[in-house]
Design goal:
The complex is a heterodimer of chains A (about 240) and B (about 110). Chain A is an alpha/beta fold and about 240 residues long. Chain A has a single domain, classed as Rossmann fold (3-Layer(aba) Sandwich). Chain A contains 9 helices and 8 strands. A 7-stranded parallel β-sheet of chain A has the order 4-3-5-2-6-7-8, with helices on both faces. Chain A starts with 10 loop residues before the first strand and ends with a helix. Chain B is α+β, with helices and mostly antiparallel strands and about 110 residues long. Chain B has a single domain, classed as hypothetical protein PF0899 fold (2-Layer Sandwich). In chain B, about 25% of the residues lie in helices and about 35% in strands. Chain B is built from 2 helices and 6 strands; from the N terminus they run αβαβββββ. In chain B, strands 2-1-6 form a 3-stranded mixed β-sheet, covered by helices on one side. In chain B, α2 links the parallel β1 and β2. In chain B, α1 crosses α2. The chains are: A alpha/beta (about 240), B alpha+beta (about 110). At the A-B interface, β1, α6 and α7 of A face α1, β1, β5 and β6 of B.
């Protein structure tokens, strides 16, 4: 009851919460991260626009690394298992998450997929996120690193238009470089300048899944992640 | 449109708190949204207007404190202006995001009989 006059109106009781709106997701992501680390698994959250070449990069990764390392994948799309089917065709065990109308993967979806997949026995788990440069950026999934695929056909200024996604990237893959001969106006220096405005330490690898150019650099980069001490992976992880 | 799923989980969180404290309603919900958090405050507010119907938040005002973005040198703390390369103008060290990334449920005001 109201303390002022006893009028019968409800009393207003303030409760200080000071909790991240993503607290539930963060807890599940921490659980996923501990699971990945306990199993010696390097989890890579691969993001980018629809059609940026995410699946093609993973196909090229399977061709280059599939004989020496155990690869696994989780793919996210609103509908269909087409990406997972493509990855299975090149020998990557893949679980598909069809999100219905959700524009991103969250830690709970990844956690659920882990229960149905044999990712526990892999060296690398690629989480191919829903094609989108906005929403996936804010959800920690428990990954060791975030990688963003940006195709040369998307133009040079995407990092400035979608700064949160690129700020959270540990690496940007400039994909489809085999098409550069058809894009005479494309300015590689402009992409680097745009990334430098949103990423404090920009790292990029130019890559073509079709020609194989740059695939070696990409493999070298992910192989270095295996050598990183565990506490460094956690410290570098987005959202930490 | 991740704002909708964020609002949905916020309303659930507020309802849990309200039930635990035997509140009959929620008077006000206060959140802090950073300019660089990846969440659009206006969309968050429209999502709240739709999703609060039929919940304990139905009559609760949503107050959004918007937090501006601030980059600072990761070594010496000098302010690094946005819109340019994110390295310290003094020592060349990479900047870090000092403010603007927050997405926080700050305070709930409950109606207790």
């Amino acid at each position: 009851m109201c303390d002022v006059c006893g009028c019968g109106d409800p009393k207003i009781v303030p409760v200080d919460v000071h909790e991240r709106l993503l607290a539930t997701n963060d807890r599940t992501a921490a659980h996923n991260r501990a699971h990945f680390e306990d199993h010696g698994l390097v989890a890579i959250n691969l993001m980018g626009s629809p059609g940026a070449g995410k699946t093609a990069i993973l196909e090229a990764t399977a061709r280059a690394l599939g004989r020496t390392r155990r690869l696994a994948a989780i793919t996210g799309d609103l509908e269909t298992e087409r990406d997972a089917d493509r990855l299975r065709a090149v020998g990557i065990p893949a679980a598909a998450i069809t999100t219905g109308s959700a524009c991103h993967l969250d830690a709970e979806m990844v956690h659920h997929a882990l229960h149905h997949e044999t990712a526990h026995a892999a060296d690398y788990l690629f989480i191919e996120n829903v094609g989108n440069l906005v929403c996936p950026a804010i959800y920690d999934l428990g990954q060791a690193v975030n990688v963003v695929a940006l195709s040369v056909t998307e133009g040079e200024d995407k990092p400035l238009k979608y700064p949160v996604m690129f700020r959270k990237a540990d690496l940007v893959l400039l994909t489809k470089t085999d098409l550069l001969s058809a894009l005479p106006d494309y300015d590689c220096a402009a992409v680097s300048a745009a990334l430098a405005q949103v990423m404090p330490t920009p790292r990029t690898i130019a890559i073509s899944a079709r020609s194989g150019a740059g695939v070696g650099d990409w493999i070298e980069w992910i192989e270095r992640l295996r050598a990183r001490p565990r506490d460094m992976r956690a410290a570098d992880a987005p959202g930490h | 449109m991740h704002e909708y799923s964020l609002v949905q989980s916020m309303v659930q969180r507020v309802e849990e708190e309200a039930r635990a404290r035997h509140a009959t309603g929620v008077h006000r919900v206060r959140v802090r949204i950073g300019h660089s958090s990846g969440v659009e405050a206006d969309l968050f507010a429209s999502a709240y207007d739709i999703l609060r119907a039929g919940t304990l938040c139905a009559d609760a005002e949503l107050v959004i404190a918007r937090e501006s973005t601030e980059w600072r040198c990761g070594a010496c703390g000098t302010a690094v202006p946005a819109g340019a390369e994110l390295v310290c103008p003094n020592c060349g060290f990479p900047a870090r995001l000092a403010r603007g990334d927050d997405l926080v449920l700050e305070r709930i005001e409950l109606e207790v009989p």
